[in-house]
Amino acid sequence: MNLTQSIILGLVQGTTEILPISSTAHLALLPWFLRWNDPGLPFDVALHIGTLLAIIYYFWRDLISVINEFIRGVFTFNFKDYPNGKIGFFIIIATIPGTLFGLIFERQAAGILRQPIVIATTVFVFGIILYLSDKYSKKQKRISDMNLLDCLVIGISQAIAIIPGVSRSGITITGGLIRNFKREEAARFSFLLSTPLITGAAILESRHLDLTAVASPIFVSGVFTSAVFGFLSIKYLLIYVQKSSYTVFVIYRILLAALILFVYMQRASG
């Protein structure tokens, strides 16, 4: 892998991790489309760390408030006076299903489920589900209105995202819309919810990292690009969905699925 490929993959990761179009699908398919060598798991982990840095930087005030009020709520046995602490509690609960699914199905997600046909199917199907949930959701609730059932629905949704092509942000936003959260509120909680899961996955997979390779220009450029485009994508999405639906992302997913199938059939017949 060269520097140009690293920057392109960082751009793709930073953008597609945030937008509801599946970063795993794009990172798995881009080398396949362009006939690049697989950059490997260590580089994939590094790119996710870049996106995590973008999320933490964008939401650092929210995260500090959530952590601070969660600690106060725990020690006083009273979350009623600490609403952000209650959000912290819900983030922990909603993270559990995704963690369990990740540990149980990690091998399948990294193997057979990364096939182009599987990815094309999940990109399409879960795009349609996003469209329907966006179209029929009442979109009335805010994060402060969240209850235990809301967080369980969103948490189970996040667990499904272990399947490549589903999109972690896409399926958790879908879960939020199903529970009638406003578009921007569903997206905001999706990003807050991603921090413990991505952090845990990065720590778990860091054993594969070669510190010498991590310090190389190729790794650094990938992480930096992922962080920059992740930050810009968060800012864009939260502004965009205040006035617009998720339909444009659904259309993109349908076109992507069609492109995957077209290329797959062309290569199979050739």
Question: Describe it for me?
Answer:
The longest helix has 28 residues, at about 85-110. The chain has one domain. The chain is mainly α. The protein contains twelve helices and no strands. Helix 1 runs antiparallel to helix 2 (about 25-35) and helix 8 runs antiparallel to helix 9.
Please tag this protein with its features.
12 helices; globular; single chain; 270 residues; mainly alpha
Q: What would you call the quaternary organization?
A: single chain
- N/C terminus separation: 27 Å
Number of domains: 1
- Please state roughly what percent of the residues sit in beta strands, choosing from under 5%, 5-15%, 15-25%, 25-35%, 35-45% or over 45%: under 5%
Low-confidence stretches: none
The major sheet is characterized as: none
**Radius of gyration of CA atoms, rounded to a whole number:** 18 Å
Derived structural class: mainly alpha
